[in-house]
Structures are given as C-alpha cells and as structure tokens.
Amino acid sequence: MNNEFPLHLSLIKDISEREIFNLMENFSSFSDINNVEISFLSKTLGIRDKTINMIRRREINQDNIDRLKKLNVKTITYKDKEYPKRLLNYKPFPPLIFTRGDISILENKSIAMVGSRQCSYYGKKIAEEFGKALSNMGIVVVSGMALGIDRYSHEGALKSSGKTVAVLGTGIDVIYPASNRSIYKEIIEKGCVISEFPPGTGPFKQNFPFRNRIIAGLSNGVLVVEAAYKSGTFKTVKWALDYGIDVFAIPGDINRITSQGTDLLIKEGAIPVISPNDIIEYLGIPLEKSIKEISNKNKELKGDLKIIYNKIKSMPVHFDELLEKTGLSISELSSIAIQLEMKELIKKLPGNYFRRI
Q1: Count of domains in the chain?
Q2: pTM of the entire structure?
Q3: Do 182 and 268 belong together in one domain?
Q4: What digits encode the pLDDT tens for the residues 228-262?
Q5: Under 8 Å CB-to-CB from 80, ≥6 apart: which residues?
Q6: Residue 306: which domain range?
C-alpha cells in the first residue's frame, strides 16, 4: 500500500496508537477524513478533538518527512507484507514501524539479549561472547542499543559473520546515547535498526517500555545476561512471559548485585544457560557433531594438539589470543589448527577466529 497517509498520520503531534489504527482502518487519505462528519470521527471512532483539528489543518512537520527520505528510512505498516509476522501475533503491536537496513532478517530465528546498563566486566564478556557465538550460528541477536549489556551484545554479533537488530526507544533518526553512533551505522550495514516512534522523538522515559515489547515480540526467546534485582530488564521479561516466549538467564555470583536479578529469574523458572549451545539446541539448530563423537576424537589427541584443543571453547577465540596463551610460533600454531580442522574438531571462522564444532 501507499504509506504516505499512515506516515503523515504518525507525524501528527500527540496522536495515539489507537487513533492511528482506527483512522487507517477506515480511511486511505486525509481527503477521505475531511469528507465525513466530525461526530463520526469523535463518537464512532473515538478520535479526540485536538487530533481532528490537526488533521483538518494538516499540521505535519515537512522537515521530518524530508529527513526520512534523506536517511533512506522505510515506513512499514501492519498491512504490508514486509511487516514482521511475529509482531502480528502479539497485541498491542505498533501500527507502523520505521526501519533502516535489511528488514528481511526479522523473519529469521532470533534471540533477544538484554540486561543492565551498568553491567560488570563478567556481564560484558558474556554478552560479547554469546552475541558472537549465536550470530555465527545464523541466529539474529536482537537488543535495544542501550549502554551496557545491549551494546556489548550488538558488538559481539557485529564481530561475527551474522546479523543483529537494534530496536530503538527514540525516533529512527535519534541516536541515544550519542556514544552509540558508530555501532548504529554498523548495525544498519550488517542488520537492521527499527523504531515505532516518529522521527525526531527523543529519549523519553515513557517510550522505552513500548520499545521492550517489540524486542520481546521479535524474538524466539529472551536471554537475560546480567541484571540487578530492580532492573528495567524485567519489563522486557514481563512482555516475553505475557506473550508466552521462553526466558533464559545466565547464572551469576550470588554476592554480586548485578547478578541478583538473573539468579532470581532462574529460581522462578527461567531456563539457565551456561553455553550458547544451550540456546542453539533449544531453537532446533542441529549441532554439527554429537558430543559423544567429539569426545571420542578428543581422547585420541596428544601433546600440543590436546593443549590447543583445550584452549578453544564453544566461544570463538582469535588466532592471536591462542598465540599469546600458548607461546607457540605462528607456523606451529597454524599447523596444529589445520590438523584439528581436518579432524573436524574445530572450525575456522571469518576474521581468523576458531571455535569447537
């Protein structure tokens, strides 16, 4: 459909989601609206007087429309075939979304990764490692591009060969916080950025719970990496539970404040995970080799082969890091890596990373 009309509706100041839905269901242009009685709009459709007046005067910010075109932003409504099918399963879903990047990846298997903005070094490393490992297996990493766990989850995915999605609590053209400018651009190149809020919308506190419902709704599961007992992360968890989406949690130190939330979630029934493989298997993605087969091959390893294999885990590790940990020369380590690959015990990934199969 032609999305100029719903786009213009969304740009009317303070228009509600319900009003947009009702107007889109009954009209296809502002001219159509102007041809009906105000009483029908107000009493039958529940459109507020101030909204009707702005529609009549066509009070639309043309600068915002021009900015969307300049940024190559795509407007997608719930009536379009490109609208994420998962979102249509859960109400309330936004009547339209603004997107930049590859919208098609929203149909892939995905995991939302969420957690505290003020995370520990432990949380940072786990977020990066899980983001990288899940993305390498073709799982889309969805998060909110906030500081802390969100950012590190995106960064992990960006370091891999996979994709990531950032759901914004601001307008599609507003980067918040500003320090995320570099990853915002990279996510557009290697994934997708989406927002339900009109361009120019700032980081208003009341908008982020709505953002969280989209993060949950786009995902096959929600992974809480690290969160304190009282954390905004629980709002995303609540949406997931309301939608019937499984919640995963990373166990943490019981004495660490930033792990109290995740440990509580596990106590209350969240699925504990200690490896990306736990999630990969849950999503029905077959692991490349059975544990038993790999275990038998592992027993045959000796000397440096066994040492190097034990240094490589399910999380991707860089060749340079292996050099530093083992003290081997480049040629020695390269030879061992080739042998382990030939035995189908490890896999080389883009960027000179290795992981166990």
Answers
A1: 3
A2: 0.77
A3: yes
A4: 887 779 899 999 999 999 999 998 877 788 888 89
A5: 1, 3
A6: 291-356
